[in-house]
Amino acid sequence: xxxxxxxxxxxxxxxxxxxxxxxxxxxxxxxxxxxxxxxxxxxxxxxxxxxxxxxxxxxxxxxxxxxxxxxxxxxxxxxxxxxxxxxxxxxxxxxxxxxxxxxxxxxxxxxxxxxxxxxxxxxxxxxxxxxxxxxxxxxxxxxxxxxxxxxxxxxxxxxxxxxxxxxxxxxxxxxxxxxxxxxxxxxxxxxxxxxxxxxxxxxxxxxxxxxxxxxxxxxxxxxxxxxxxxxxxxxxxxxxxxxxxxxxxxxxxxxxxxxxxxxxxxxxxxxxxxxxxxxxxxxxxxxxxxxxxxxxxxxxxxxxxxxxxxxxxxxxxxxxxxxxxxxxxxxxxxxxxxxxxxxxxxx
Length: 347
Hints:
By secondary structure, this protein is mainly beta. The protein has four helices and 20 strands.
């Protein structure tokens, strides 16, 4: 019995090591867009850089709501509703005190009405009522960015959860006066859920399930729009001793995330994306609710693949994992793998 338990444990460790290596080395797990199928994955590096030190300005931000058939997994497509054709929507960066003009255009080919509710807004419905647009219409409003922080935005057209589950969410960063401390790399990562009539792993074009949505039983969990989207060519990349900042949010619409990077400890956590208080330090896993966000910072001292997960780990088998690939010199003083004495004994 003891021998069997040890063998099973060894097999599990081998499987984990193999899976992380595979994700780092190849993009076969990343959904491949075929002809006529959109790539809805938002790259984790697709975000504007830090703002120059400046006073408050008038900033105009335009969104196009587009409904597209996109690659959800290999051989599997889904009809997404999006901001600007990607999931999540574009990362918006403004400064505390800015006057922000939001313009939303609903594509002529849309079937649904769409709008946008930004959690950074102080005003009725977060701008949702002001931007309610039928297909082909444009709506706009302005707001003053009063409070620094990292905020979720989403479509708030009834049924609100349906619009969010189909991909209509993103984040807006309101930098504090003077900005954030400089880091070497910044990444944009959002978690979401997709509810399909068909079981997870079904090939072909899947259809949405309102019943599963109401029961909060998703078939897929995703980072940045699709199953295993942030692996292979889309993996996050860094070098040892670089400071890394991840802007992390949960579009949801229903599930809370326990965000964790396997093999790392967060040096700083701006809990619930509050940027004006002292950050938490030396944190293993953070809790982020649907419609919430957090900012984490860390430095990867040892090279290799690091797996991004929600530590509700069953979700990894439904598409919720990513890779941070770190390059650089080995650090045996920090991490050293002992020789396999079993293999050596057989040689």
